[in-house]
Design brief:
By secondary structure, the protein is an all-alpha fold. The protein has one domain (3-57). The protein contains 3 helices and no strands. 0% of the residues are buried. The model has no long low-confidence stretch (mean pLDDT 77).
Length: 59
């Protein structure tokens, strides 16, 4: 492995060491759900969705 040592040293000099690993617990943020009403019946939203579906079906 004497042929690879200078290349490894050059890589380490150029790029340095790898960054430290980050724990999964530090990547995840748990929050309680937002206080909003459950998805209920909304006739306006239903009409918009149906109109798009009707247009897609050619009705």
């Amino acid at each position: 492995m004497t042929g690879r040592e200078p290349a490894a040293e050059a890589r380490r000099a150029r790029f340095g060491a790898l960054p430290q690993r980050i724990a999964f617990a530090d990547l995840v943020e748990e929050r309680p759900p937002a206080d909003r009403p459950a998805a209920g019946y909304d006739p306006d939203a239903l009409a918009v969705r149906f109109a798009c579906l009707a247009a897609d079906l050619g009705l």
